[in-house]
Design a protein that fits this description.
The chain is an alpha/beta fold. Helices cover 37% and strands 19% of the residues. It has six helices and five strands, in the order H-E-H-E-H-H-E-H-H-E-E. Helix 2 runs parallel beside helix 5. The longest helix is centred in the middle third of the chain and has 16 residues. The two termini are 18 Å apart.
Length: 187
């Protein structure tokens, strides 16, 4: 990664360019969930039309989060973000590491993730949102609502980015960990 990009990302990370959401931890009665875990399997979803480049490689819950962010962007007159499988894979690994306690909840390793992505993209700008929640019938809506009520997260959702990746993982207690990486890349 060039020094300029690393310095820019470091400065942005110290400001509001990325944030972390923490959903309210209210609990449903035991056994009542909408997402069972199979929605986290990144397998082709034949029920949904493939609208984005790599949509067929996202899980149901990952596609749902991506759709929610793009619906918000559409509501405020912004163009949609294209979903890219490689960015989603890197996002998913971070979510899995948080869910498994390998790293703490947050942005640990953000610059390393961007370094890996820079092998495939000429990155102009980058940002990341993370969220976690548990015990909700609709964890996607909780994560989106948290991000919309946080200035830093909302700024990322509204940013001038072109591509994105979404990764979601679940811990042993059923809690969800969301990571969305946003990139503006050179064409």
């Amino acid at each position: 990664m060039t020094n300029f990009i690393r310095q820019t990302l470091t400065l942005l990370s110290m400001g509001l360019i990325f944030g972390c959401g923490n959903g309210a931890f209210s609990h449903l009665p035991q056994g009542q969930t909408v997402y069972t875990g199979s929605e986290l399997d990144p397998t082709p979803n034949t029920n949904d039309p493939v609208a984005d480049d790599d949509r067929e490689f996202c899980s149901q819950i990952e596609c749902g989060l991506h759709d929610g962010v793009n619906a918000y962007r559409d509501d405020i007159g912004l163009s949609p973000l294209s979903l890219v499988a490689h960015i989603s894979e890197i996002s998913r690994v971070h979510s899995e590491e948080m869910a498994n306690g390998v790293v703490s909840f947050g942005h640990v390793g953000f610059l390393d993730r961007i370094d890996r992505l820079e092998e495939d993209f000429e990155i102009i700008a980058a940002a990341e949102n993370v969220a976690t929640n548990s015990g909700h019938a609709d964890p996607i809506s909780v994560a989106l609502d948290d991000w919309l009520h946080s200035e830093g997260h909302r700024d990322n959702m509204e940013g001038g980015f072109s591509v994105t990746g979404v990764g979601v993982a679940q811990d042993d207690e059923g809690g969800y960990y969301f990571t969305q990486i946003y990139l503006l890349v050179q064409d």
